[in-house]
Amino acid sequence: MPDRIHRSFMPRRSVLAGLAGAAIGPRGSAGQGGAPPPASANGGEIRFGALYPFSGSLSLLGDESFRGVEIAVEERNAAGGLLSRPVRLVKGEAADQNQAVVEARRLLGAERASGLFGTFSSALSFAATQVAEMQRVPYFELGAIGDPITERGFRTLFRTCPRASDFAREAVNAVPDTLAPAWGVAPGAIKVAVLHEDGLYGQSVSASQEAMLGARGLGLVEKLAYPARSPDLSTAVQRLKGAKADVVLHTGYQNDIIVFYRAMREAGWRPRMVIGSGAGYSGVDTMRAVGPDFDGTMNVDFTQFEVNERMAPGVRRFVEAYRRRYGSEPRSGHSLANYTGARVCLDAVQRAGGLEADRVRAAMLATDLPEGATPSGWGVRFDERGQNTRAKPFVLQWQNGKQVTVFPAEAAVARLRAQFGPAG
Hints:
By secondary structure, this protein is α/β, with parallel strands linked by helices. The protein is built from 13 helices and 12 strands. β3, α5 (122-134) and β4 form a beta-alpha-beta unit. α3 crosses α12 and α12 crosses α13 (357-366). The longest helix is centred in the N-terminal third of the chain and has 20 residues, at 59-78. The model is unreliable at 1-43 (pLDDT under 50).
């Protein structure tokens, strides 16, 4: 296979010439449920399970995440495959934790998967990764951010994306570093509230936010949790209103974000700013469902598509490949995050020369890419827990129907607008 394509995640001078200009493969059959690719002369296909929520309330971003992996695999196959063999993705449905465990076992058993990609949801990942660890099979987590996922000492688990504590840090820092100067007030005068869904995702982000608010000398006036599928958040909104919150740090999925904004509208109240932490805050569908009230919303998230390409080389080529493959614009940066992560992992397996757990671990831990060396702008360097320590979220804002990067400066394509809600 051509080195210029599949050595694209190399130190920066190679990346800019290789990754940013790498050809992304044509539409293929991987993961489409049809016949598997033909076996190569050196043996049959290599199967990977793709474990995501393809139904239920998490299905939109679950499917969007899968699409990123699918593009990465099709690109790999178009360039000659993995270890001179074609790669096939086998879907696994993970609508809840129990199903994630059952499907992980099926993929590694009956489906003969050599490894697993996943999973978008922290709760689903926390459950499914235990199955892979017990069977000593590589599990590549590309999108679930809960810190506890990589804090259990697992040897076969590798996470390419940022952690909840990374999201929390950027959300908290945005208050004194960007909003306070824009509003012309002292950071300590800003009243901050934390609102979150009560699953592993929301718990991880909000706990880190609470600790970091204190470290930055910011006052926490309210902290509220709710069930992710709650149909009504009017009581929470009344409490936020009563606390006179200036900024609400909200961690939630699409459905509860819509419910939250509806409750604010019905109460005739909104804070000076809402800062989301990924998930539903990244989706175009969320913005459309909420309407004009969503404008100005800030979001700490995976890299989205309005970003300075000097910081994220190859992001435009990914968008072009996505359009060709699916006939539409990407629905969120989850596809880009999973594409980047899948390429890192496939490249490591290629360098390992096989899928044995110890060989894959050694190759993953040897990966060393600087920040700004991948289409997401992340670098890659794994610690002993399998966490990529060079994956960092960006600060974004919804402006006139688009989510634009506003921080850090080297990734930004727009200035922060200090107004939350429809521009007047």
